[in-house]
C-alpha cells in the first residue's frame, strides 16, 4: 500500500498536473496569440500538429524524467526511455485533439447581408449571407499529387477548385467579363483560361485528358463564349503546364491585346467595376491510390478521379447551404490560393477568404472532438499508470528522495559513470570489501546520447561539416515555419525558394546552382542526406582541412547542380546529395591513392564502393537525381586526383 501511495504522490499525480498544465497553457496561448489577436501568421499544421508533437517532451525531460529514474527498470537505459515515450504521447494526443477542437469551437458565426461586407468585418471563420450568387462556371483548379506512406507506397490525389462568390447586384455579365466571344472554341488549361497558341505547343505525351463540351451544355455554362465548344485540357505534369503558360503574360480576354494585362473592365447592374471577387468558394476532392501500380494504371485512375471530381463539381447546388466555413491558414489554403491566382482576379492583399459551403447544422461542427479529448486523456493516463505500477521502486533512490536528498543532474551522471558509493547501498561500509567494478555501467553506454550529440558539434579539425549541416537544417526549419509542409514540399515551392529549375536557372539565375544544394524535398530527404554528409565529413574533413573541405563541397555541389540542369532542364532539382557524392568521390580517390592511412583503406574502401554503387542503382528505380549524383561523383574524383599528390607531400613532411 505504501508503494502504491508513493507512486501516486511522486509519479502519477505530478504527471497528471504536468499534462493538464501543458494542455491548458498552450491552448490558451494558441487561442490568444494566433486565433484571437492574429499576432502570428502560422499555418494550422504548425500550431495544431508539429508544436503539440514536440512541446510535451521539453518539460517531461527536464522536470519529470528525474522522477522516472526512481524506478528500478531491468534495462536502466531503455527502461526510462520507453516510459518517457508513453508519457510523452499521453500528453501529445490530447494536445492534438484540443487544438483541433479549439479551431472549430472558438470561432463564432457571423451573419452578413452582403458578401462585400466580409472585407469590413472582423475576421472570423463562419459566415452566413442573406443572399449571394456563386459564379460556378468561372473556376480555376490546382491539381496536386503527393507520395505518402513509410516506403512511398501510396499516392494521394488532390484537386482544389475555386470560383468567385458575389452579391446578386454586383454579378458581372457573362459575355463581356470572363470569357471572350469569338469564332474559336474556348480553351482551359488545367482550369486556367488559355488560347490556341499555347495549346498547340503542348505535346501529345504531356496531355493527361481532354474534356469537351458542346451545344446547349456549353452555352448554359459559358454563355455565348461557349457557342463553338469548350475544351478543358489537363496535363500530366502541372509544373510543365505552368512553364508553358509563362512564355508570355496571359491577357484577361483573348480579344484584348497580348500586351494588355490590366483587369478587364466589366459592366454590372448599376455600376462599372473591376473583376475582383472579395471571396471565393473552395471545393476539395481527394483520393488515395497505390503508388506501386503500373504507370498506365495509375494514369487511368488519376484521369478517372479528375473526371469524377469535375462531374460532381458541376452537379453541386448553388443554394441551400446552412453556413460557410472559411478555410484556415493551412496547406489546403495555400493550394486554394494557387488555384485562385491562375484567374488573375486577385487583389493585392494578404488575406484571401476561401469559403467551403456546409449543409450540416452549425451546432454539429465540432463533432465528437470534446469526447475524444477526455477519452484519449483517460486512456493514455491509464496506460501510463499501469506502466508505473508494473515497475518497482529503486529503494535506495526512493529513500534519498523522501529524505529530501535529491542529487543534481551532474551528481547523478557522476554516480552512473562511477557506480554507487558504498555508503548508500543500504549496508555498512566495508573498507576492504569486494570491488563493484563489474557492476558499473560502461561510460560508452551511459553517454550514448551525449556522444551522438558530440558527433554534430564543431570542434578542432571538424568545423565545416557541422556548419553545413546546420545551414541545411535551418533552411528546412524556415520552410516548415513558412507553412510549406514537413514530410514533403511541392516542386513549385522548391522552385520559388531557389531550386534548380531549368527555365529559371538559364534566365540569368545561376545562383540557383548554389541555393539548390541547401534545399531538400522533405524530412526524409534531409535526414538521409545529412546522415551521409556527417559520415563522410567525420572521415574526410580532418584530412582536407576545414577550408578545403568547404570549397570542395561547394564546387562539387555547383557542378552536380549544373549536370542536373543540363540533363533534366524541365525538372526542379534540390538536395545536397550531389555535393555529398562529390565528397565521397574525393574520399574514394584518397583511399585508393594512399592519402588515407592504410588501416582506413582496409576498413572503408569496400563499404564506400558499396554505398556509392547502391545509391546509384537505387536512383535508377526511384525519384533520385542520378545526373547530379554522377556529376558530383565525377567532379569529386577529379578534385581528389588533383589534391592527392599535394596532400601526400604534406603528409610526408609532417611525419618527417
List keywords for this structure.
alpha+beta, eight-stranded mixed β-sheet, flat, four-stranded mixed β-sheet, 52% helix, 656 residues
Your description of this structure?
There is one protein chain. The chain has 656 residues and is α+β, with helices and mostly antiparallel strands. The protein has helices at 2-36, 44-54, 57-68, 78-105, 196-200, 215-222, 238-245, 295-315, 331-341, 369-390, 395-402, 409-418, 443-446, 448-455, 464-481, 491-496, 502-505, 512-515, 523-544, 546-567, 577-593, 598-621, 626-655; strands at 109-112, 126-129, 133-134, 140-148, 154-166, 186-189, 192-194, 207-213, 230-235, 265-267, 272-274, 280-290, 323-326, 354-358, 500-501, 572-573. Strands 1, 2, 3, 4, 5, 12, 13 and 14 form an eight-stranded mixed β-sheet that branches. It has a four-stranded mixed β-sheet with strand order 7-6-9-8. A hairpin with a 2-residue loop joins strand 6 and strand 7 (192-194). The protein is flat.
Amino acid at each position: 500500500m505504501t508503494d502504491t501511495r508513493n507512486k501516486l504522490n511522486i509519479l502519477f499525480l505530478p504527471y497528471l498536473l504536468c499534462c493538464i498544465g501543458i494542455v491548458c497553457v498552450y491552448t490558451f496561448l494558441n487561442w490568444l496569440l494566433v486565433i484571437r489577436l492574429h499576432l502570428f501568421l502560422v499555418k494550422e499544421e504548425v500550431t495544431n500538429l508539429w508544436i503539440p508533437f514536440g512541446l510535451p517532451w521539453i518539460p517531461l525531460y527536464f522536470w519529470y524524467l528525474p522522477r522516472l529514474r526512481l524506478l528500478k527498470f531491468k534495462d536502466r537505459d531503455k527502461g526510462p526511455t520507453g516510459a518517457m515515450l508513453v508519457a510523452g504521447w499521453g500528453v501529445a494526443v490530447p494536445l492534438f485533439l484540443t487544438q483541433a477542437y479549439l479551431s472549430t469551437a472558438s470561432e463564432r458565426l457571423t451573419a452578413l447581408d452582403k458578401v462585400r461586407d466580409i472585407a469590413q468585418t472582423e475576421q472570423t471563420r463562419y459566415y452566413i449571407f442573406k443572399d449571394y450568387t456563386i459564379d460556378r462556371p468561372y473556376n480555376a483548379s490546382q491539381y496536386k499529387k503527393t507520395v505518402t506512406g513509410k516506403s512511398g507506397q501510396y499516392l494521394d490525389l488532390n484537386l482544389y477548385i475555386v470560383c468567385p462568390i458575389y452579391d446578386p447586384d454586383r454579378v458581372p455579365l457573362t459575355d463581356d467579363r470572363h470569357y471572350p466571344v469569338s469564332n474559336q472554341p474556348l480553351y482551359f488549361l488545367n482550369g486556367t483560361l488559355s488560347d490556341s497558341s499555347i495549346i498547340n505547343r503542348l505535346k501529345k505525351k504531356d496531355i493527361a485528358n481532354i474534356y469537351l463540351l458542346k451545344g446547349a451544355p456549353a452555352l448554359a455554362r459559358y454563355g455565348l463564349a461557349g457557342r463553338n465548344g469548350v475544351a478543358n485540357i489537363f496535363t500530366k505534369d502541372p509544373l510543365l503546364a505552368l512553364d508553358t503558360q509563362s512564355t508570355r503574360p496571359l491577357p484577361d480576354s483573348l480579344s484584348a491585346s497580348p500586351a494588355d494585362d490590366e483587369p478587364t473592365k466589366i459592366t454590372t447592374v448599376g455600376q462599372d467595376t473591376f473583376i475582383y471577387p472579395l471571396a471565393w468558394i473552395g471545393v476539395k476532392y481527394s483520393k488515395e491510390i497505390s503508388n506501386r501500380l503500373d504507370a498506365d494504371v495509375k494514369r487511368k485512375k488519376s484521369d478517372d478521379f479528375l473526371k469524377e471530381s469535375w462531374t460532381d463539381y458541376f452537379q453541386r447546388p448553388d443554394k441551400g447551404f446552412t453556413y460557410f466555413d472559411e478555410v484556415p491558414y493551412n496547406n489546403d489554403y495555400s493550394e486554394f490560393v494557387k488555384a485562385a491566382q491562375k484567374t488573375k482576379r486577385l487583389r493585392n492583399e494578404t488575406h484571401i477568404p476561401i469559403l467551403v459551403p456546409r449543409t450540416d447544422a452549425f451546432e454539429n461542427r465540432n463533432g465528437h472532438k470534446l469526447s475524444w479529448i477526455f477519452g484519449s486523456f483517460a486512456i493514455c493516463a491509464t496506460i501510463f499508470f499501469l506502466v508505473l505500477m508494473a515497475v518497482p521502486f529503486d529503494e535506495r533512490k526512493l529513500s534519498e528522495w523522501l529524505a529530501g536528498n535529491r542529487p543534481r543532474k551532474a551528481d547523478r551522471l557522476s554516480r552512473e559513470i562511477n557506480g554507487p558509493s558504498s555508503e548508500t547501498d543500504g549496508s555498512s561500509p566495508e573498507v576492504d570489501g569486494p570491488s563493484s567494478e563489474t557492476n558499473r555501467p560502461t561510460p560508452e553506454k551511459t553517454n550514448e546520447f551525449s556522444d551522438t550529440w558530440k558527433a554534430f558539434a564543431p570542434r578542432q579539425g571538424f568545423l565545416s561539416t557541422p556548419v553545413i549541416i546546420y545551414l541545411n537544417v535551418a533552411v528546412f526549419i524556415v520552410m516548415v515555419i513558412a507553412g510549406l509542409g514537413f514530410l514533403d514540399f511541392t516542386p513549385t515551392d522548391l522552385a520559388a525558394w531557389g531550386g534548380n529549375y531549368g527555365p529559371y536557372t538559364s534566365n540569368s539565375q545561376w545562383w540557383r546552382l548554389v541555393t539548390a544544394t541547401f534545399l531538400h524535398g522533405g524530412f526524409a530527404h534531409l535526414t538521409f542526406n545529412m546522415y551521409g554528409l556527417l559520415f563522410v565529413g567525420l572521415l574526410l574533413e580532418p584530412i582536407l582541412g576545414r577550408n578545403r573541405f568547404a570549397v570542395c563541397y561547394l564546387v562539387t555541389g555547383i557542378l552536380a547542380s549544373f549536370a542536373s540542369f543540363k540533363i533534366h532542364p524541365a525538372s526542379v532539382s534540390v538536395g545536397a546529395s550531389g555535393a555529398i557524392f562529390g565528397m565521397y568521390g574525393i574520399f574514394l580517390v584518397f583511399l585508393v591513392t594512399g592519402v588515407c592511412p592504410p588501416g582506413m583503406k582496409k576498413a572503408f574502401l569496400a563499404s564506400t564502393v558499396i554505398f556509392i554503387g547502391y545509391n546509384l542503382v537505387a536512383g535508377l528505380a526511384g525519384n533520385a537525381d542520378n545526373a547530379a549524383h554522377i556529376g558530383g561523383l565525377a567532379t569529386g574524383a577529379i578534385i581528389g586526383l588533383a589534391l592527392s599528390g599535394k596532400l601526400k607531400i604534406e603528409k610526408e613532411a609532417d611525419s618527417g
